[in-house]
Amino acid sequence: MTRLDKTFESLHNIRPYALGQGITARAIEADRMTIAVVDLDPGAVLHEHHHENEQLGFVIAGTLTMRIGTEEQALKAGDMYAIPSDVPHDAVAGPEGCVVADVFAPPRADWNNLKRLDPAPGRWP
Question: Choosing a second label site near 101 at 20 to 30 A (CA), which of 42, 70, 75, 92?
Fold first, then answer.
């Protein structure tokens, strides 16, 4: 996981994690949380999964349909969501793709095993 060794950093300098086909996350972690900006290509599918981490997030740009537990919602820029620990969830990006910001507590230590890509501009900003 990327830990900042200085006070400030640009998203463009962070090596993204490959979360799935057409889904990348630029993340930094602290002792008790991870924050990530997640890019989803048009129509990208985040398959059902769950994790011990609580997750709070909001849509920065684009649209996606998210299912959390038994609830499903179409989300657009400015919409927020909360995912309790160990609750199954999935998402499908809209036709223009999507960018979300997610905060996890505790940190997403499981991401340390994922493939990392070279730094590159994301879908946002």
Answer: 70
How many structural domains is the chain composed of?
1
- pTM here is 0.95
Per-residue pLDDT tens for 85-98? 999 999 999 999 99
CATH of the domain at 88: 2.60.120.10
Domain that residue 87 falls in = 11-105
* b/e map 56-69, b = 16+ CB within 10 Å: ebebbbbbbebebe
Distance CA(50)–CA(30), nearest Å, equals 21
Is there a domain that residue 5 lies in? no
